[in-house]
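Look over this today:
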Amino acid sequence: MNTKIAIVTGGNSGLGFATAKKLCDNGITTFIIGRTKEKTEEACAEIGANAIPVLYDLNNLAGIPAMIADIAKGGNIDILVNNAGINSKKEFIEVTDEDFESIIHTNLKSVFAVSREVVKVMQNHGGGSIVNISSMASQYGIPKVIAYTASKGAIEAMTRAMAVELAPMGIRVNCVAPGFIKTKMSAKALDSDPERKNKVLSRTPMGILGEPSDIGDAVFYFATSESKFVTGTILPVDGGNSIGF
């Protein structure tokens, strides 16, 4: 049996790391795309032999086709997880055109470019699964993250459009929308802002933060044949946050 091949963008920390670990632990060779050499190599060493570091800055759209072609030399790319993304907190009227463009460039344009190149490979090998990562910011309005919200709303719409167009090629496209998850980044943000932390927990019916592995498990479901009849869906993994009152 041929080993499955996956790509996880931004897989060297947080939710991407948990996702890459889940795939690798299940025998899937996983290429982890990261910008920082040391961080990406350390993440792969921690995950184990199935993790392969790819040092690349996804802001360089022009180089993406060659980078994906290089990964595909070994055969099909069975799974793509579009996890890499950036955020910035600013008052709406303070956000410059450059601020807005920077986040759209990383969170949306690079997802499109990577997906397009991976689809070219998948369509020649009988299909595959693409999993996009969205956010609670696309489920309801969150202040001070307008560009991030716009990018994630677009990711969800793009998920549906891709799913319909790519289904005849045997390619499924789904999306996971994480709620508030315990990561170093979120802990830092919430612990320094008790009011925000209380608000997050009070509107999450389960009353707790999620674990990174909760996202890894959801992505794994979409990535594998467990979800073979599922495409075009957005799955909130959020302890009920998006429907909380």
